[in-house]
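Appendix B, record 7
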Amino acid sequence: MIWRLHAALWAYYALTSAMLSLPMAALTLLMNRELGLSQKPERVSAYYAALFATSLLRPLWGALSDRLPRRALIVPGCALSGGSTLLIGLAHTPGALFGAGMTAAAAFSASESAADGLLVQAAAGDPALVARLQVAAMTVRTAASAVASVLGAALLRVVHPRAVLGLAGALGGVAACASLAIREAGGEGRACSALAAPGVGRVAAVLRSCAPAALLLFLLGCTPSSDDAYASFLAAGLAPPLRAWQLGCASACESCAALGGTLLYGLLARKRPTRALLGAATAAAAAASLLRCAAPGGCLGLAPPLYAALTALLTGAASRAAFMPQLVLSAQLAPRGSEAAGFCALVAVTDAGALAGAGLTAALTASLRVGQPPGRSWAHLPALVACCALTRVLPLLLLPWVRTEAEEEPQAEADADSWLEEAEEPLLPLRED
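Structure tokens (predicted):
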């Protein structure tokens, strides 16, 4: 039933996810081999930090889409993001890469904010349906990403990485055309909740209403990551270096594993609360990342392509399983009538944390001198990986203070039943005549 009712929305998620995932290996090769960013991997982190900075506008895009037809943001955002991806493939300097990348990210942020608001609105405040829709959407996204990653790896055997980026840009145009078929339940009019104050006021009201959860999401995003440095090591640090198609295969393995992590979360979410899954999955993701410590020391005795695929499978599944509870928590806490603003506000909190985390990652990478010789050494990569894994689990100390709507309702009902039972008991003992 879910699949039939939201077919156009699923098509949007599939095509945009393919647009993002198809050129990932090609973009890594372009940045590290043609533009020379592998000499200082923190510059790769700075690039992704710039992209995250554009996502901080998501709450405002969401608030705008709560007032307008959501397609008014979805369609042009897709088209502009696709066109900017074409320009990334034409970039020959880091400055051109940054400019085109930020434009693509900002346009996609506006488009995705409106689509996510439509998805949360469809759940009509039902916490169980919220989780089901988020899992379904992420399943579509991840399956499309896996297929696109495999296709991207195959294309790198026969075409230049810039051609793959051009094809990804064309997918953005196809996604814009497909988005014209999206229909909003109940038409353009939407009831506004008590938190539906215009613009910034609405976003602030949402964050105040769920401050502990917002703080936890920020800190989870704020932890440094070894992803960029490890990707740079695979692209330029191995001797002999991985071939383009081998790097693409590792990216495809990560996308396929992410699909498995999404489906696993969907099964566990039926029986376990969101908080418990968030803690367990985050700890598992931190543990899986420690496998990267063996990269500079011989890759556990495995062939480098096999080692890259193995680490991609484990970290891809664990990282996606850790991300899904954050997404579901954000959707469950979004108020009725301000679905896009509420959901995007909490997602933007995570993105703001990721922006700060990218800065911490760059500083930690530079301080540990991780990178391409001379002046740097990949032998310091294990220290970076260990520091990132340790800091990833520290925010979980806030979990006892986070409550979701799905957990509060049973507690409220139990309190009400207890009060009724006490009220039925006589306050004074009855005297028998």
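Remarks on this record: The chain has one domain: 2-184+198-404. The first helix runs from residue 2 to 5.
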